[in-house]
């Protein structure tokens, strides 16, 4: 079965890539092994799919219906790391990718890398600075703040703090769902 307390480290944890581009997922191999397996969990299709196995000589074995020109594995012979290269990304490549090695009749599983493929990458947020005034800026006192909504006013920072709190709370169900997904994967692989 899967040995959950000895996870292999994968980097990065999340990838957001554009359609038709290529990407790479790295897996650290601190344990002795005979080769590396790569799997993909698809949330949409609710299945765990075997992609490719690469032995120490670099010979690859592909899963059913897996295009050989799409996936390749590099670095297995070094015994220290393995990289899964994915070419010509499409929406069907969305999912969580796991590396795995077999050791002493146990299958060690990677920590997982979530890949999202989009047609257009979101633009990075630009930080804009207001032009500096030569006049000294001073804070409006409480007596004057009644009719003004200045930078020191609670009318500005209270809604801002509340929206940040709501955003953080909305991440809790996502983290819970990912935990349940990893548990389901473990149970499914354990039964097989």
Automatic annotation (TrEMBL):
GO terms for biological process: adaptive immune response; regulation of immune response. The chain crosses the membrane at residues 155-175. Its main location: membrane. Residues 12-110 form the Ig-like domain. It comes from the Eukaryota. InterPro entries: CD8B, Ig-like_dom, Ig-like_dom_sf, Ig-like_fold, Ig_sub, Ig_V-set. Keywords: Adaptive immunity, Disulfide bond, Glycoprotein, Immunity, Immunoglobulin domain, Membrane, Signal, Transmembrane, Transmembrane helix. It is a single-pass type I membrane protein. One of its GO terms (molecular function) is MHC class I protein binding. PROSITE patterns: IG_LIKE (PS50835). It is found in: Membrane. GO terms for cellular component: cell surface; membrane. This is T-cell surface glycoprotein CD8 beta chain.
